[in-house]
From TrEMBL:
Its cofactor is FAD; [2Fe-2S] cluster. Pfam families: FAD_binding_6, Fer2, NAD_binding_1. Residues 2-106 form the FAD-binding FR-type domain. Residues 265-354 form the 2Fe-2S ferredoxin-type domain. GO terms for biological process: phenylacetate catabolic process. This is Phenylacetate-CoA oxygenase/reductase, PaaK subunit. Keywords: 2Fe-2S, FAD, Flavoprotein, Iron, Iron-sulfur, Metal-binding, Oxidoreductase. GO terms for molecular function: 2 iron, 2 sulfur cluster binding; flavin adenine dinucleotide binding; metal ion binding; oxidoreductase activity. It comes from Caenispirillum salinarum AK4. The keyword Transferase does not apply.
Amino acid sequence: MARFNTLTVSDIKRETEDCVSIGFDVPEDLRDAYDFRQGQYLTLKTTIDGEEVRRSYSICAGVPEGRLRVAVKTVPGGVFSTYANSRLHPGDVLEVMPPAGRFTTPIEPEKAKSYVLFAAGSGITPVMSIVKTVLALEPDSDVTLFYGNRRGGSIIFREDLEDLKNTYMDRLRVFHVLSRDVQQTDLLRGRLDREKVDALLDAFVDLETTDHVFVCGPEGMTEAVRDALKDRAFPSGHVHFELFGAPGQAKAAAKPASEPTGEQTTVRITMDGLNTEFAMDRAETVLDAGRTAGLDLPFACKGGVCATCRCKVVDGDVAMDVNYGLEEAEVKAGYILSCQARPKTKSLTVDFDA
């Protein structure tokens, strides 16, 4: 099981009025642990005003850049995002978990592939890592990016995208879709809803030659792209989603603590090769009960989005309140989000090492 390590902030770059990117110094003895694949994220932990805060943020650097960097956009009421944008400085330290996440595909330098990517707002962060890595390491592959924002001034990594377009003129196409700024064509004006996604696919994409589609943004946009591709019979196994929530969604997604049911479940948890057994009320989540029992179980958002708390049911059964972080195949294989899972059986065995 991955653990937090203390990393020093090397630099902070103002990307937009409400977004910064944060670079980290990685000691030589931890470099292997912090190697990442394009599209992965980091879970950060610190204490803010006396309270422990954990959040997950996507890596925005490309693999060939050899550096570790995430982007953090301020959200209203966001404790960590406000701290990162206003109080964090180079030289400060944060607790950082090694890279995780499955919003990625293998890089195959010998193949020529076509990628189509949809992003909105800060959803560009993992997509930026994918764009940089694919263009640098798959020399015959091409990328088409549709990026939705309200205005031109809110486009994160705008200069970086322009530089990439200039460097890879024949292999990268970027279409900015703005909802509140005037555009030269109606096709690029508005929100990335179902109607807009259909129009963009019809105008610019040949799905028969497309190998992978990546989508990162709010739930509405994600569903619009998913439905459009499904109607076009594009293979679901080649569509990759990373959901981020609107402000407060993670808190809203987490079901409030229920009154104790009086029904007990004996839980056995495997982590780091060690087994721990305890009793819990079925109204609790596995994550909360495990932490109450003294286990340092991994988690970040507690809203069913980031999948940091992912584990596998070995025996027994659970019900999950919500699931935004696991794919259907993972659920069928027995994986759960422990922050959303409540026992349904008298005994339950879960493995965090799986």
